[in-house]
């Protein structure tokens, strides 16, 4: 398949920056809240910040092809750093800010990073801890100097000092910078992003300017994203989604990127920014719904009654209005009244009042959760993608939004399903290669450009919509031959406010069983209202009344699963509530909060065996990692419960 050609000379991000600095010179490009005050930078100011940093990097000795790692929270300075590195013909490699030193060391060593641009003392300390083992690392560039007055500065450089150094040598450096910029093109590497490492070591995904810009162009046109739109950048910068939304699409369309003051103030800052374009993973929407459910449980009976009356109507009317379908006069008037009394204030509280286009992806979202937000009048849609695709593989068009599919191919994307049911795609956004890993590149991307997603699914004949069943490696069969797709059940469980995470097992087994993590906020609130005392997560998770509540949730899910012809065999027969929350620091989740199913199965094999051998209780001891990196262990005797299952719907011939 021939690659699509980028439009005009806008074939690198630095050239898009130059266009924006000219055409949108006085328009706000970035906002950041610091010390409670919003600060703004125009596109012209952004270009100056990036230009001075690019020259500073060159003054430091950065050469074309060098890798520069970037770690910190979402701040304009780090988005500028990525484009400054590109301008100097280096390759930006963003890292997860909550990664421990050993995780960072692997990436820094693998990509042979020459410099790290770090936010503050915390990040600098992590890198210093592993610096002696990194032969290629020449230094650390820090943004916030607090706490580092007595540090050895021989390999530490201030971000702003570097910018000043670049400006001081501008006469000589600008000529070299212009030369490097002129030599770049669509095939030049734009960024290297590491996969989440669900099944093993993260892989470095090399994405070119063509990959990012063609994807940004097509998807901006798909949803009519323009310079008047705005986003809130709060997701990890090391994740491909943040890169395409906060840099790729922002540079193509010229819209404004807002950065929250901190992760803790994100929701408040979201309310103040009021973005028109918003992305969040299902876990975020689950958390928001949990907070709504908690507030309603604490509300008066009259308010609960009003909420139920108007939300029942909204669930029917809201999605129809979004899709342009006819709605009766009485239902429409009732919806408008509910908008004044319930849904409007609720949208405003959630910070989603101005959202024109909203997306969720990363994990399948439960239909009940999806329908809740669309009932509020929020144009929430699903997309399907991965790092290797520059995010976008499929999207849902306005008027064709459904909870059970992930839409049709994104602009310029081709899809096919192989004989095993695995989804393949090819597009201009398809990655160039895995860094230093030709074997994995060959296994994933064939000579014709088709990329294996690792997901199982099928394309509906009538609509052309793609339905994802689960990860191909996770889809299997129960011993009776019926299909096993754990994510389908797990997402239904996570719709309940009480359930934070669930892991379902059953492949090659007689029945399905589950590990459950309770949501401490939701269940803790419930415990307070019911005068149930507890001193820890472990104690609350083991409480008999909590087990009764979770059992009721599981049985409701079984009722729903029993109605699905294809997956009715996935009903849960037995479950237990884990004595600790699954944690990325313990290797149980990825940094993007995806379940590492095989690792969990191995780590908790004693619990899994007890679920299948008929035991009513099981004693276990588990190693945990504390916030300061120390290791410890916790032990507990866990209850195991049987739950009711229901008659399975027969598959039609």
Brief summary:
This protein is an alpha/beta fold. 39% of the residues lie in helices and 22% in strands.
Explain this structure.
The chain has 21 helices and 29 strands. By secondary structure, it is α/β, with parallel strands linked by helices. The chain folds into three domains: about 15-275, Rossmann fold, CATH 3.40.50; about 280-355 and about 355-470, Rossmann fold, CATH 3.40.50.12780; about 475-640, 2-Layer Sandwich (GMP Synthetase, Chain A, domain 3), CATH 3.30.300.30. The strands form eight sheets. Strands 4-3-5-6-7 form a five-stranded parallel sheet, with helices on both faces. Strands 12-13-14-15-16 form a five-stranded mixed sheet. Helix 9 (about 240-255) links the parallel strand 10 (about 230) and strand 11. Mean pLDDT is about 90; it is low at about 1-10.
Essential attributes:
653 residues; alpha/beta; Rossmann fold; GMP Synthetase, Chain A, domain 3; 3 domains; five-stranded parallel beta sheet; five-stranded mixed beta sheet; 39% helix; globular; disordered N terminus
Shape label = globular
Mean pLDDT: 92
Strand order of the largest sheet: 4-3-5-6-7
CATH topology of the largest domain: Rossmann fold
| Number of domains as seen in the coordinates | 3
CATH superfamily of the largest domain: ANL, N-terminal domain
CATH class of the largest domain: Alpha Beta
Give the percentage of residues in beta strands.
15-25%
Distinct helical segment count: 21
Structural classification: alpha/beta
Unreliable spans: 1-8
As a percent range, the share of helical residues equals 25-40%
C-alpha termini separation:
39 Å
The radius of gyration over CA amounts to 25 Å
Number of DSSP strand runs: 29
CATH architecture of the largest domain: 3-Layer(aba) Sandwich
Let me know the largest β-sheet.
Answer: 5 strands, parallel
């Amino acid at each position: 398949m021939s690659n699509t050609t980028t439009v005009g000379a806008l074939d690198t991000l630095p050239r898009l920056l130059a266009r924006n600095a000219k055409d949108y010179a006085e328009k706000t490009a970035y906002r950041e809240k610091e010390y409670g005050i919003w600060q703004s930078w125009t596109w012209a100011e952004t270009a100056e910040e990036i230009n001075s940093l690019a020259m500073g990097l060159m003054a430091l000795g950065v050469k074309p092809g060098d890798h520069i790692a970037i770690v910190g929270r979402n701040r304009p300075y780090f988005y500028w750093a990525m484009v400054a590195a590109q301008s100097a013909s280096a390759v930006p490699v963003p890292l997860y800010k909550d990664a421990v030193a050993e995780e960072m060391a692997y990436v820094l060593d693998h990509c042979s990073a020459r410099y790290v641009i770090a936010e503050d003392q915390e990040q600098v300390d992590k890198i210093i801890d592993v610096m002696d083992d990194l032969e290629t690392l020449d230094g650390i560039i820090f943004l916030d100097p607090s706490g580092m007055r007595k540090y050895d500065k021989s390999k530490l450089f201030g971000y702003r000092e570097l910018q000043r150094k670049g400006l001081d040598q501008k006469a000589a450096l600008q000529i070299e910078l212009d030369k490097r910029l002129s030599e770049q093109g669509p095939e030049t590497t734009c960024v290297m992003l590491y996969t989440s490492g669900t099944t093993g070591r993260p892989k470095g995904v090399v994405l070119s300017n063509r990959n990012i810009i063609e994807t940004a162009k097509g998807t901006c046109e798909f949803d009519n994203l323009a310079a008047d739109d705005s986003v809130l950048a709060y997701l990890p910068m090391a994740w491909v989604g943040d890169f395409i939304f906060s840099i790729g699409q922002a540079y193509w369309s010229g819209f404004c990127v807002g950065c929250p003051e901190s992760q803790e103030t994100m929701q408040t800052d979201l309310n103040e920014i009021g973005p028109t374009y918003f992305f969040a993973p299902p876990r975020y929407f689950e958390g928001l719904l949990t907070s709504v459910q908690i507030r309603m449980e604490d509300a008066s009976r009259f308010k609960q009654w009003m909420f139920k009356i108007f939300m029942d109507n909204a669930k029917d009317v809201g999605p129809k209005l979004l899709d342009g379908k006819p709605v009766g006069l009485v239902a429409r008037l009732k919806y408008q009244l509910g908008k004044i009394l319930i849904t409007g204030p609720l949208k405003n509280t959630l910070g989603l009042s101005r959202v024109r286009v909203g997306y969720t992806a990363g994990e399948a979202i439960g239909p009940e959760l999806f329908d809740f937000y669309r009932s509020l009048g929020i144009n929430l849609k699903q997309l399907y993608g991965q790092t290797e695709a520059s995010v976008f593989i499929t999207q849902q068009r306005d008027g064709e939004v459904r909870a059970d599919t992930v839409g049709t191919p994104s602009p310029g994307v081709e899809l096919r399903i192989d004989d095993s049911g695995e989804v393949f795609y090819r597009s201009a956004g398809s990655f160039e290669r895995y860094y230093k890993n030709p074997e994995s590149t060959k296994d994933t991307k064939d000579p014709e450009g088709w990329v294996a997603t690792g997901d199982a699914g099928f394309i509906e004949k009538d609509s052309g919509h793609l339905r994802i069943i689960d990860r191909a490696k996770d889809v299997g069969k129960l011993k009776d031959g019926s299909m096993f797709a754990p994510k389908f059940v797990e997402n239904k469980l996570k719709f309940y406010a009480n359930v934070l995470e669930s892991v379902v097992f059953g492949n090659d087994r007689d029945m399905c069983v589950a590990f459950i993590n309770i949501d401490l906020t939701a269940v803790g609130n419930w415990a307070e209202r019911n005068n149930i005392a507890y001193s820890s997560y472990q104690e609350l998770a083991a409480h008999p009344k909590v087990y009764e509540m979770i059992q009721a949730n599981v049985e409701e899910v079984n009722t729903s699963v029993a109605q699905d012809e294809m997956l009715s065999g996935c009903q849960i027969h037995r479950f237990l509530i884990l004595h600790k929350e699954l944690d990325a620091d313990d290797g149980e989740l990825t940094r993007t909060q995806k379940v590492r199913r095989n690792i969990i199965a191995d780590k908790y094999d004693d619990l899994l065996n007890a679920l299948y051998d008929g035991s009513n209780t099981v004693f276990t001891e588990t190693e945990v990692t504390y916030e300061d990196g120390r290791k410890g262990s916790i032990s507990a005797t866990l209850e195991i419960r049987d739950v009711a299952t229901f008659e399975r719907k027969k598959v039609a011939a």
